[in-house]
Specification:
The structure is a single chain. The chain is an alpha/beta fold. The protein folds into two domains: 204 residues, L-asparaginase, N-terminal domain (Rossmann fold, 3-Layer(aba) Sandwich), CATH 3.40.50; 116 residues, 3-Layer(aba) Sandwich (Rossmann fold), CATH 3.40.50. It contains nine helices and 20 strands. The strands form six sheets. Strands 4-1-5-7-10-11-14-15 form an eight-stranded mixed sheet, sandwiched between helices. A four-stranded parallel sheet has the order 17-18-19-20, with helices on both faces. Helix 2 packs across helix 3, helix 5 runs parallel beside helix 6 and helix 8 runs antiparallel to helix 9. The longest helix is centred in the N-terminal third of the chain and has 14 residues. The chain is globular and about 65 Å long. Bound molecules: aspartic acid. Aspartic acid binds next to loops.
């Protein structure tokens, strides 16, 4: 039997919360005090909804680890009172925030469903309405009194995806997110079909929230013609502890000795370099091609099939918790929230 209970909706900002102002015709943020007037359909849920609005609503391009910590804190302080959480968030950096939250919320046993939209709620053809309503339904869904999806997810355009496997790949169409390396957790049509085998199982342990994120990490995307001066200056960034190197195809990079030597010197000096593919789907296989052999030889760490978004936020989380680079490197390669294939 599926019951529904109480859901906290946290509104951080983004397109979804916009409506057209009657007087000026401009897009303005929705006032959640009037939510039932704007969306009377919400009264039909047989669960209680409560709203928490950020004081200053954010375009998600302005998100940062302090706000992630604030969000984690809101979930922490409301964790016992609610059965699930819906986070309304701009789509641009949703995959980063949702990935970060997946690491920050250890032993999560309740749904945290991120959603947003490409068109504001107040626009006739909005995708926000369906995204919002279904996200609530998923956050409230239980079986035998246990949440069906006890993990951080992104729900967008009929698909429920694991947050730390998701990337935004389309800035125009409603189908804006993809999880290239992990199947969907649910598909939504007339019914919500949960793909139970893909969903993490609850561990019934006490929630532990980690708010400390270390930002001494970075991303460097390779491209043909990248200059050694640029690579060198990134590697010499003061305080840098780890670099996500976005490589070609299955983890390939230029073999030029000047480039490889720069990477090697940094690794020898303690920098962690993670090899992540620029492709949306597929995995890094260091050694498959000659062009990835040197990376393997100098000690670049394979990021396997992790997304860039999950890689950078996982590094922030791990360095927020551990000081020892070797420990971070070891933990990075193991799945801790289903973000990487073992
Ligand atoms: N720029 C907006 C944001 O990410 C776009 C959106 O909401 O989808 O906040």
């Amino acid at each position: 039997m599926i019951d529904q209970n109480s859901i906290l909706i946290i509104y951080t900002g983004g397109t979804i919360g916009m409506i057209v102002d009657d007087e000026t015709s401009a897009l303005v943020p929705f006032n959640f005090d009037n939510i039932y007037k704007q969306m009377p359909v919400l009264k039909k849920f047989d669960c209680q909804l409560q709203f928490h609005c950020f004081e200053s609503l954010m375009d998600s391009s302005n998100m940062n680890p302090e706000v992630w910590a604030q969000l984690a804190g809101i979930i922490e302080s409301n964790y016992e009172q609610f059965d699930g959480f819906v986070v309304l968030h701009g789509s641009d950096t949703m995959a980063y925030t949702a990935s970060a939250l997946s690491f920050m919320l250890e032993n999560l046993n309740k749904p945290v469903i991120f959603t947003g939209s490409q068109l504001p709620l107040g626009v006739i053809r909005t995708d926000g309405r369906e995204n919002f309503l279904t996200a609530i339904e998923i956050a409230a869904a239980k079986e035998d009194d246990t949440p069906i999806v006890p993990e951080v997810c992104i729900y967008f355009e009929n698909q429920l995806l694991r947050a730390n496997r998701t990337v935004k790949y389309n800035a125009e169409f409603f189908h804006a997110f993809v999880s290239g390396n992990y199947p969907s957790l649910a598909e939504v049509g007339i019914k919500i079909i949960y793909n139970r085998n893909n969903i993490l199982k609850p561990n019934f342990k006490k929630l532990k929230v980690h708010k400390q994120m270390d930002t001494h990490v970075g991303i460097l995307k390779l491209y043909p013609g990248i200059s050694l001066t640029l690579v060198d200056s990134v590697l010499k960034t003061s305080g840098l502890k780890a670099l996500v190197l976005e490589t070609f195809g299955s983890g390939n990079a230029p073999m030029e000795s000047g480039f490889i030597n720069l990477l090697k010197d940094s690794i020898d000096n303690g920098l962690i370099i993670i090899n992540v593919t620029q492709c949306v789907t597929g995995t890094v296989l260091q050694g498959k091609y000659a062009t990835s052999m040197p990376l393997k030889e100098i000690g670049v760490t394979s990021g396997k099939d992790i997304s860039t978004e999950a890689a950078i936020t996982k590094l922030m989380y791990l360095f927020g918790k551990y000081h020892d680079s070797d420990q971070v490197k070891t933990l990075f390669q193991k799945p801790i929230r289903g973000e990487i294939t073992a």
